[in-house]
Amino acid sequence: MEQPLRVLTVIGARPQIIKAAAISHAVRTRFAGRITETLLHTGQHYDANMSQVFFDELGIPRADISLGVGSGAHGVQTARMIEGIENELRSGNHDLVLLYGDTNSTLAGAVAAAKLHVPVAHVEAGLRSFNKDMPEEINRILCDHCSTWLFCPTQTAVDNLRREGFALEATGPASIDRPHVVASGDVMYDNSMRFAELAEQRSSILDSLGLQPGGFILATVHRDHNTDDPVRITAIFTAMLDLHAHHGLPVVLPLHPRTRKMMATLLPAELDKAVRSSSGLHLVPPVGFLDMIALERGAQLVVTDSGGVQKEAYFFGKPVVVLRPETEWVELVERGQAVLADADQGRIAAAAAAFLRDGVPECPPIFGDGHAAEAVCMELLRFRP
Question: Could you tell me the domains of the chain?
Fold first, then answer.
């Protein structure tokens, strides 16, 4: 009997834990006995509200290996991750490394595996913001070019890889020199569809915050480009107050630990006091996946700098004001469901007013059929190393 394919999955940040849920579920159910998975958690997100809650809610097995790297400068953090992942790969117990997204954990896994000639499978490959000032852009490009399998969530991602010289008609066994580009669909879409009903049953966050479906704005701010710049963070939080004042809608803001810390450090004292004392701004701790789905489905408008939240808002047909000058999810902007407002108070206000007045354009399915995780597993088994 053929031995199962042995996969080392590297996760470290909140979005990766959520994405891993889809494939981990497929491995434990449909592909049980054919694929085995070892979960390695780098510790990039170590706060319980940013990490453990997602294992608990989504039914992901506890990590088999925990590096406990924690926060730090990019170089220090990534180097410690590479060292830990490399030590694990030297055991010879893994046939390939499975990576998600574009964090430092993704980069570390790609570098460690490629140097040791262990094949890399990159889920969410081909995304490009075309802004190399973003650490995530560097991470995703380097990971793609270290990969043996590139699983693309959309056709735009496939087209991006074609322009970079990847052959889309690769046949035969996959390798780092002849990688396979696969239009798999998006594992986040799998998850959102799978857990939407569960969120409706279990989440009580709207009731606990006194919110009515369709009667509030959901906001998230976490990228260091926004949180660590006093001008940008001031503009964003001023815009949050203005949104409530002008439209009478409460604004719900689950606060990333970095955002909470930088608010106290960088916001002008009067603005910080106004934000924290406003009855129209609900500053809450980071929420779990089920509560986040409930907030996304219930919001009238989403304001965010998160790539994942942009996409989830699209799944649920919600308009998005993007607090960035660009996005890797260009399809959303092209379809008019998202507007790039950056950290500009006027543009944020104008985009929000237009969406609240006119609603959101139709959001046709562009992220697959809800079976991306199965497509990934089938491809890995088809051309196993």
Answer: 5-186+368-382 (3.40.50.2000), 193-358 (3.40.50.2000)
* pLDDT for res 46: 55
**CB atoms < 10 A from the CB of 371, how many?**
18
Given a cut of 80, is residue 299 above it in pLDDT? yes
Catalytic positions, written as ranges:
222
Of the candidates 224, 366, 372, 228, the residue with the CA atom closest to the CA atom of residue 305 = 224
Angle made by CA atoms 10, 256, 23, in degrees to the nearest 5:
30
Nearest to 182 by CA among 384, 380, 357: 380
49-75 CB burial, b ≥16 within 10 A, e <16: bbbbbbbebbebeebeeebebeeeeee
Q: Is pLDDT at 341 greater than 60 in this prediction?
A: yes
- Picking from 276, 322, 278, 318, the residue whose alpha carbon sits closest to that of residue 294 is 318
Regarding pTM above 0.85, the answer is yes
SS3 label, residue 198: helix
Rg (CA), the chain: 21
Tokens of residue 328, six digits: 């890797």
Average pLDDT, the chain: 93
SS3 for 339? strand
For residues 97 and 110, give the distance between their C-alpha atoms in angstroms, rounded to a whole number.
Answer: 8
Decide the pairing of beta strands 35-41 and 65-66. parallel
Q: What percent of the chain has pLDDT over 70?
A: 96
Dihedral angle of Cα 92, 95, 100, 105, to the nearest 10 degrees:
10
The first and second tokens of residue 18, run together, are 């959520």
Nearest 10 degrees: CA dihedral of 183, 195, 63, 151? 0
User: CA-CA distance, 114 to 108, in Å (whole number)?
Assistant: 10
**Sequential DSSP letters for 58-119:** HTPPPPSEE----S--HHHHHHHHHHHHHHHHTTS--SEEEEETTSHHHHHHHHHHHHTT--
- pLDDT value, residue 258: 87
